[in-house]
Amino acid sequence: MKGRILALLILLFSYMFQAYSQEKITLSGIVANRSDTGTLFGHNISIPEFKVGINDPADSTKSAGNFQFKYNSLIIPTVLIGYGVAGLINPTLKDINTSTKNEFRDHDDRKVNLDDFSQYSPFLSVYALNAFGIHGRSNFKDRTIVLATAYLIMGSSVGIIKKTSKVTRPDGSGTNSFPSGHTATAFMGAEFLYQEYKHVSVWYGIGGYVVAAGTGFFRMSNEKHWLTDVAAGAGIGILSTKIAYWIHPFIKKTIFKDKDKLNGTVMPYYNGRQYGLGFSMTF
């Protein structure tokens, strides 16, 4: 039981620090027109017309400003990644990996594939909330550029490290265990959700990080990853989103300059073994 508690503490503590990092984002603009109103859990909400693209009148017209760099915001992702890297060679951390795996196996040997879907929930929630009229900090164009940048950084980092580290999975199904891509995706999305909605309510961020932690938990429960894989994946995911916000002004100015219209689609895929989402943007 100690191993499972440690796993959850490592993952959830990442959110507790982020909530008090106090990064500041300068924003401008107002909330755009809404098409209709309704009720949800007893509260009035705005229900927009569902149109995809930056010119969607239901979407927020606010644009993401400069995300101020702060060194203390690097502490948690650095610690998580450092813990994961240290676990590649440190005998004590390897023993913790093994004991955690055994505890999961002893207490629950059922395999639940919920993590294949929960990894995408945090960042998809940002678009769902905007669709229901609960606007975040950024408009469609800016948040999509940030998300695409974060996904590119996270995906390329995870892919390169997996191919070079060659760590065997707990169930022996492959040698691409380190780091956990599912966990990295989930924490990338959780940080994205937190940054977009922390000014509305801190509970959106809490919810995103709980789902992300649960994704890592299921990856270990399903014997697809070690605790160190999950910790490193969480750190990479958080850091990828932070970097995406930091470099967003440069990306927008150099690549998307004078591109007022940005349309995008998200397509699910299944290749017989893995589920995933594919992005497509037109500008």
Q: What can you see in these coordinates?
A:
The structure is a single chain. By secondary structure, the chain is mainly alpha-helical. It contains 9 helices and 4 strands. The protein has a two-stranded antiparallel ribbon with strand order 1-2. Strands 3-4 form a two-stranded antiparallel sheet. Helix 6 runs antiparallel to helix 7. It is globular, with a radius of gyration of 19 Å. It starts with a helix and ends with a strand. 41% of the residues are buried. Residues 20-43 and 45-58 have low confidence and may be disordered.
> What series of H and E elements makes up the topology?
HEEHHHHHHHHEE
Task: Output the structural class.
Answer: mainly alpha
Rg over alpha carbons: 19 Å
- Order of the strands making up the biggest sheet: 1-2
State the helical fraction. 40-55%
* Subunit organisation of the chains: single chain
Q: Note the total helix count.
A: 9
N→C terminal distance: 51 Å
**Unreliable residue runs:** 20-43, 45-58
Strand content: 5-15%
Indicate the overall shape.
globular
Mean pLDDT: 78
Largest sheet: 2 strands, antiparallel
What is the tally of beta strands?
4
Overview features:
54% helix; 283 residues; two-stranded antiparallel sheet; mainly alpha; 9 helices
Task: Give the SSE map.
Blueprint: H1 2-18, E1 36-40, E2 43-47, H2 75-86, H3 91-107, H4 115-118, H5 121-131, H6 140-165, H7 181-197, H8 202-221, H9 227-254, E3 263-270, E4 275-282
Antiparallel strand pairs: 1-2, 3-4
Helix pairs in contact: 1-3, 1-8, 1-9, 2-9, 5-7, 6-7, 6-9, 7-8, 7-9, 8-9
